[in-house]
Amino acid sequence: MMCLESDGAGSSGHCMALAAEDDRLETLSGRMNHVTTPLDTKSPDTDSATSTPTVPKKQPSLRRARVAAAGILSVGNVLNYLDRYTVAGVLLDIQQHFGVKDSGAGLLQTVFICSFMVAAPIFGYLGDRFNRKVILSCGIFFWSIVTFSSSFIPKQYFWLLVLTRGLVGIGEASYSTIAPTIIGDLFTRNSRTTMLSVFYFAIPLGSGLGYITGSSVKQVAGDWRWALRVSPVLGIITGTLLLIFVPTAKRGHTDQLKARTSWVKDMRELIRNRSYVFSSLATSTVSFATGALGMWIPLYLYRAQVVQKTVEPCKFGPCSTKDSLIFGAITCITGFLGVILGAGATKWCRLKTQRADPLVCAVGMLGSAIFICLVFVAAKSSSIAAYICIFAGETLLFSNWAITADMLMYVVIPTRRATAVALQSFTSHLLGDAGSPYLIGFISDLIQQSTTESPLWEFLSLGYALMLCPFVVVLGGMFFLATALFFLEDRANAEQHESCSDPFTAGSCSDSEEASIL
């Protein structure tokens, strides 16, 4: 095995190897035998035939430290999405309080996403070059303070609420861009797939808890503003834990690269990476659908029940929270099932084909589109049937989140990953949920203006606008199929670049191959 150094002391460790394969700990750059600190260690350099019986005692602490770090990062991701969808959980109350229509309500999410996607490439650049956990913590502290402040905005200043949502988007952009790359550097292969699955399970879990927290806190406190004061407190605590317990993980083989490429070079290479481009376009369609459905489905189902005369129209707050609670619970459960289904299906399909990752995503997207269409058919007569269709559609839609992140780790070299995540985030939001909530609200208002004002047309107009989502999801399935065509070639190129950047294997690379990574 290779020799280790301690980052804190700078001293050289002992070169060791274990007789049993199961006793070795995999890292992104190799296997680790001897550990001088529980968190910061460099990748091994050489193999040794010497066996030391005391090494296994130190390895479990290293594993636990890395799993704990991934757990803290995942909790932070939960809070990011909890804060994002708390507003959707009390959307009807916000409309009543500020007196805004569907398009105005949709603007809250659109402004949030627009600021998010503009900030993401900036944080991607910073994340590839500076201390990542400091950037993450500062981002959490920033959005926590802004969210808490937004709960005190008077009713005549709706524009100020819109502005604060934009500032929250900047804070959350730092987290979503950088956190996956730390996990990618702490784990490898199937263990990385598992940990990224946990991290991305936080998206539906946090989203669902956002609906539940918003509606429940409002119901208990009797005021929707209190819903915006929960996530900031939890955010401050999580940011502090992140600073203390998350290690400063090495960026793959960064310390072994002969030269760091420029940002322009990184962007040019990412655009030439066809697997990356098509998977980013597919991710954009997922963002479009989840952004629109997450913002409007609870209100759509409420209007469906008004038409069915099972509930009374809400003229003055506080309004019913039942649909937000049910949709939030469904989102949490389907997120858990979707991540498990996606990760399990991918591991099984990898035994059959090396293109398993994009193919599993494509099947999930196409199946999801069918059930999303059925939601609008079932909602006219039965809310229960609509919820069943939502359950199936969301499970399939959520199955590709962790897989898409894992694909990016395979086809992009380590020193470009934060930039790649940032660019993918920017693209997916620009083409996806940056405009979809507002677009759905705008189409709904447009249809209502051409018809008579009634609860029936409020329901139908929103349903017709939301019918755009399943067609976009089908398009995403096509993009994943296109990704499958180039996945193996791009993965091999990334592996070759990593190999050529390693001084112990670079001798086997041709001059042209070595030049391509500089």
UniProtKB/TrEMBL annotation:
Record's bilayer topology term: Multi-pass membrane protein
Short name of one Pfam family: MFS_1
Bias (Low complexity) ranges: 46-56
Domain of life: Eukaryota
Keyword annotations from UniProtKB, A to Z: Lipid transport, Membrane, Transmembrane, Transmembrane helix, Transport
Protein's UniProt keywords contain Transport: yes
Coiled-coil region(s): none
Chief place where the protein resides: membrane
Transmembrane segments: 107-127, 134-153, 159-183, 195-214, 226-246, 275-297, 325-346, 358-378, 384-413, 420-444, 464-488
Molecular function as annotated in GO: sphingolipid transporter activity; transmembrane transporter activity
Region ranges (Disordered): 34-61, 499-518
GO cellular component: endomembrane system; membrane
Domain Major facilitator superfamily (MFS) profile positions: 69-493
Compartments where located: Endomembrane system
SUPFAM superfamilies in the cross-refs: MFS general substrate transporter
GO BP terms in the entry: sphingosine-1-phosphate receptor signaling pathway
Family: Belongs to the major facilitator superfamily. Spinster (TC 2.A.1.49) family.
Protein name as annotated: SPNS lysolipid transporter 2, sphingosine-1-phosphate
